[in-house]
Amino acid sequence: MKNIRYSFLIIFAGILYSCGNAFLDVEPQNELSDPTFWKTEDDAKLALNGCYNNWETYTNVALFDGATDNAYEKSNFEYMKFGNGTLTPANYTIGGSWVDYIYPKVSYRSCSWFSYSQIRKYNNFLANIENVEMDNARKEQYKAEVRFLRAYDYFWKTMLHGDMPLVTEVILPDAKLARDPAASIKQFILDELGAIAPSLPVQNNVESKGHVTRGAALALKARLELFMGKYAEAMTDARTVIDMTCYELFPDYRTLFLEDSEASNKECILGIEYIVNDYPNAFIQMSLPRGDGGWSAFNAVKSIVDAYECSNGKTIEDPASGYNINDPFKNRDPRLEMSICYPGQWWNGRYYNTLDQYLSDGSVNPDYNKLEAASRSGMNIKKWIKPNVPGIGAWPPNFGNNFMVIRLAEMYLTFAEAAVETGTGTDLALDYINRVRTRAGHVEASVLTKELVRRERRVELAFEGLRYFDVMRWDLGAQVLNGPLYGSRLGTMDATGKVTWKGNGNVVNAENYIVLENRVFHPDRKYLFPVPQSEMDANPNMIQNAGY
């Protein structure tokens, strides 16, 4: 549901809060003075709306999988160097990008988690709302919403950088703060989320019109508890969210992620709301195939395709699965076809063909994988997008589809992973897993295993920004973030969509598959991003992460 608050947000956020990108840039240059502004409840509401401005963006939800074995981000919207190991303090930007300057109305906050501009905004709100005379319950809810946004920001900061300065009040402009331990920041997040939950309403994202709810607070708490190995706590919080009657699995997995379903989507616990003209995003333009007017900036890769089971519930490695490497997309988990556009698939009135330079009628194939704006991997992302959307090809990109940050299926899978790790609640965990699988038309699993849970998280939540944290938690980097990254198998397609694949598909090399890049995993970095060099230069108390 689109909320009228965005019209206020766009008009006033720039007035109320400077959005500078410098680390700990704590003195806004163009804000109304606090004594002048903070007078009425309407002022507090307007300031709350400003806090929601740019709290999260679709790029960190969808494109972040480009730093993993799920996808390849070919246009270097920052994620390419995260995935291939070339990230350095010098080339790590903490805010802003060429995108901001070309189409600044499009929300884009990519990879700015070292910036404290948002934290400054939240702390300023919390410091000033106490002076406003208003209904106390509503004031507590407003404060809880902003405390959630601050906790969410710190979640990303500490997950990606480890130790970070923990700033909870308005500080002096020239502060040179040292980094606080990651453990302290994580405990702060858990304490905040637990404390604010009772002040927030029990509503799904449709009912809350995009505002933070009790379910969002407990769901983020469960996510962090899972990542910290606090399995019993994660199960408790995930179960509490699951049992809230305001949430339910959306009946159709394919349309769950599309704009047409937003008004009836009770699965969304927390989402980013966009609206055409006022607060748009560019993801559809970025992700559609070239033949549909898109840029194919975000590509699926061989590894994620191989992760989907066959339709009988067996993996492709299982000799009893019936998997045919020369007909690789036949009889697979339905979520594969719903999430990825692959060669030979019927798509938008044509058989999708990224393999041939020329089509069977002799015309140039716009989707040929070597062309600019075509998918380099030979496979596009289908989740979140649909063809024939008004505005494709216009400049700047201007789309209003929302993005889910947390949804109910994640809570089912959080409970299931924690149940496997503790050996408790396993029957209920298997039931939760099967609710997720059967919703998408896949077969039930009969036995709960760690491998099943990990595979289910990967395919169900593909292209939703969680894979990197899973790889980190399970310490799979050396296994999945190292060596050649492969796209589609090479071949040729006829007019009926039949693909004749090249060579022996069991031999995975440059002769038979598209090679996108060679990735290098650095185990000494412990999955952490660097401190940007500009911050090292500006702050003598800043210490660089290991491996950089």
Question: How would you describe this protein?
Answer:
The structure is a single chain. The chain is mainly α and 548 residues long. Helix content is 38%, strand content 8%. The chain has helices at residues 5-16, 34-37, 41-52, 58-62, 79-84, 98-102, 117-128, 136-161, 182-196, 205-208, 214-227, 231-242, 253-256, 283-287, 302-307, 334-339, 408-422, 426-439, 450-460, 467-474, 477-480, 533-538, and strands at 71-73, 268-272, 298-300, 340-341, 346-347, 350-351, 380-381, 403-407, 483-489, 491-493, 499-501, 513-519. A hairpin with a 2-residue loop joins strand 5 (346-347) and strand 6. Helix 11 runs antiparallel to helix 12 and helix 17 (408-422) runs antiparallel to helix 18. The longest helix has 26 residues, at 136-161. Mean pLDDT is 90; it is low at 3-31 and 95-110.
Q: How large is the radius of gyration? A: 23 Å
Helix content: 25-40%
Number of helices: 22
Q: Judging from the principal axes of the Cα atoms, what is the shape?
A: globular
What about the largest sheet? Answer: 2 strands, antiparallel
Distance between the termini: 44 Å
Q: Provide the residue-averaged pLDDT.
A: 90
Instruction: Give the DSSP E fraction (strand runs of 2 or more residues).
Output: 5-15%
* Poorly predicted runs: 3-31, 95-110
The chain-level structural class is mainly alpha
Count of β-strands: 12
Strand arrangement, largest sheet?
Answer: 1-3
